[in-house]
């Protein structure tokens, strides 16, 4: 069997396992055990679309909380996140994200172009319509990053923002154009995230139990046809969306900490009872799974050897570029 067929089969199995177990357990954990309440407003796009999701980056954990939206209104199995490249080397979660087809970026434009092309080409070979989350700001909002954004605004003659950072439009424009060329981009989902209180900025906040009591999302879907075709037009479109976000968040934080929009229509999301059943299943599955792992690790030496072999394999694969670097694609022909 051709190597790509092996990889395709492997990725399908890994992605299905991630969808059914790990990813649905993420919102199950913070919603049911940590008491985080999620409010969705606006209009999502069709879960069948090939979609680019763009979101402001308020904290390091925005990607975590968007799973509450995806599990209710999106295709969990086809949801992909663009992340910093270093995260692929995190033992366990980083390896799982590699198997799930997440996109890891170095923040170096020459290498990131190749990574994006390789991943999109692979999705096309699978006849796969991903929904990819991108943070155009490139980093989360902190005093230091805001100062850099303000400096950039002064240099370019732009307005300074208080609630968002100026987006890096080059990568956004490239991803839009290549998604159009390679996998037929259907829509862009503009997501604005806000926290009424208890904003966890760092890992220390999470470890100290400083979860937000609520997370609010404003969701606005755009057809890909609304976005210009040329690079300059795409960049300008993105800049306008961030200006809108600044105004939206200013109104949010100064006027009651609520988005002035209707809740997402029930027919566009899964039934909440179904969601709660998925959460219960996730808790039961992982409780049993962890208990079995402990038992077998104690009484089954072969499992200990297999675990060691798997860890060494993933460490080596990650060292030499990760699972995504093994993909046999013609990405270079599409540059």
Q: What is the 3D form?
A: globular
Helix content: 40-55%
Helix/strand/pairing category = alpha/beta
Order of helices and strands: HEEHHEHEHEHHEHEHHH
What is the terminal separation in angstroms?
Answer: 28 Å
* Total strand segments: 7
- State the CATH class: Alpha Beta
| CATH domain topology | Glycerol-3-phosphate (1)-acyltransferase
Range of strand content: 5-15%
Supply the number of structural domains.
1
Query: Counting H and I runs of at least 4 residues, what is the number of helices?
Result: 11
Radius of gyration: 20 Å
Parts with pLDDT < 50 across at least 5 consecutive residues: 1-16, 328-335
Biggest sheet features: 7 strands, mixed
**Major sheet: order of its strands?**
1-7-6-2-5-3-4
Task: Look at the structure and give the mean pLDDT.
Answer: 86
The CATH architecture would be 3-Layer(aba) Sandwich
